[in-house]
Amino acid sequence: MSFKNSYMSKQILVTGGTGYIGSHTVVELQNSGFDVVIVDNLSNSKIEVLDNIEKITGIRPGFEKFDLADAKLTNDFFQKYKDIEAAIHFAAFKAVGESVQEPLMYYQNNLNSLMNILSGMKTHGVKNLVFSSSCTVYGQPDKLPVTEDTPRKEAESPYGNTKAVSEDIMRDFAKVNDEHNLIALRYFNPIGAHESALIGELPVGVPNNLVPFITQTAAGVRGELSIFGDDYNTPDGTAIRDFINVVDLAKAHVVAINRLLNGKNKKNYEYFNVGTGEGVSVMQLVKVFIEVTGVNLKYKIVGRREGDIEKIWADTSYGNAELGWKAEKTIKQTILSAWNWEKRLRGIK
Ligand code: UFG
To answer: Which of the residues 159, 187, 232, 269 is marked catalytic?
Structure first.
């Protein structure tokens, strides 16, 4: 260990660090003593997020604004920041429907940025990477819950395919770069916000995802929630997901980073499910929202949404055992945190 590292905290690059999951992860990294540098082009997030991270942690993270799909800028970044010991790569486009309309935009952005980061890491000797993957790689599994050994299925959308191809790129890179260590975290459905209500999800326009749509409807921004389908083969007919608290998810990243920095990984490319292990239906979630907030949420049942899968939830036993991490928050706490965030955004008391 160099003299410098013996007293300085370890520096972590967080791409997409002003985004939803990224910002919560920056907070947890800083709370764990890491020095964070964010790279974000602010295409889907706001610079003010830095102020709020600072309010929560007392520390303003480093920040560079550029597009990681630009190979030269990415290389220049690694040239400038020589002390980075690990990266967490969140920056990506994530709207499933948009990816169907604009496949090239999705492949160009999501795949080039990953390749540029890996290339920068290789050139500049940064050994460790944690990547945002998704349970979307499982499609509609034949058997539930899904373990890490559940076979991947052909992606339902270009967005989903960028996650599958990104995993393949990491696997192939790791095969021939022994000294590099990579972890893909397959997130289930991240929801909720930091308990301070200072950071949370900031959807642009009409939200695609369930919880922001619920909270915006409750806040009066949207008229009514549409529940997409009640004729699925599930106990109440609505689709089932594994909703994971975003702060729990953020903590899984800190654990993954420590695993790599401490050389505890078993292979140099690993992947883990990050969920709660429990399936909750759309209708159950709506009922929890009404129960914990007391808000009379308006909703109606409409037809299924194209491309939706019926049900999925994680078997988290492998990740829990290997990482020593477990989701801790209850669904009620999580839903309340989402509502507190929406209320603060809208100035609702
Ligand atoms: N839903 C509604 N009404 C809405 C929004 C959603 O009923 O207004 C339903 C959906 O039909 C689905 C469930 O709520 O059954 C969850 O939908 P989300 O859009 O919140 O989440 P998805 O499971 O569709 O998508 C998430 C991530 C994607 C990822 C996908 C698969 O947002 O990034 O999981 O892994 F690709």
So the answer is: 159
- Quick: pLDDT tens for 125-154: 999 999 999 999 999 999 999 999 999 999
- Plot region of 239 (φ>0 → left; ψ -120 to 50 → alpha; else → beta): beta
Q: Which residues of 70-95 are buried (b: 16+ CB within 10 A; e: fewer)?
A: eeebbeebbeebeebbbbbbbbbbbb
Q: Ligand 1 within 6 A of 208 CB?
A: yes
Chain segment 223-266, per-residue pLDDT in tens: 999 999 999 999 999 999 999 999 999 999 999 999 999 999 99
Question: In this structure, what are the phi and psi dihedrals at residue 253, rounded to the nearest 5 degrees?
Answer: -70, -40
What's the rounded Cα separation, in Å, for the pair 32 and 54? 14
Ligand 1 near 289 CB (within 6 A): no
275 lines ligand 1 (CB under 6 A): no
Contact predicate 88/14, CB 8 Å: yes
Compute the 3-state secondary structure of the chain and give helix, strand, coil in percent, each to the nearest 5: 40, 15, 40
Residue type, 299: Y
159 is a catalytic site residue: yes
Burial code (b: 16+ CB inside 10 Å, e: under 16) for 280-319 equals: bbbbbbbebbbebbebeeebeeeeeeeeebebbbbbbebb
* DSSP string for residues in 116-134: HHHHHHHHHT--EEEEEEE
The structure's pTM equals 0.97
**Are 49 and 23 within 8 A, CB to CB?**
yes
* Chain length of the chain: 349
Rg (CA), the chain: 20
- Cβ proximity of 55 and 47 under 8 Å: no
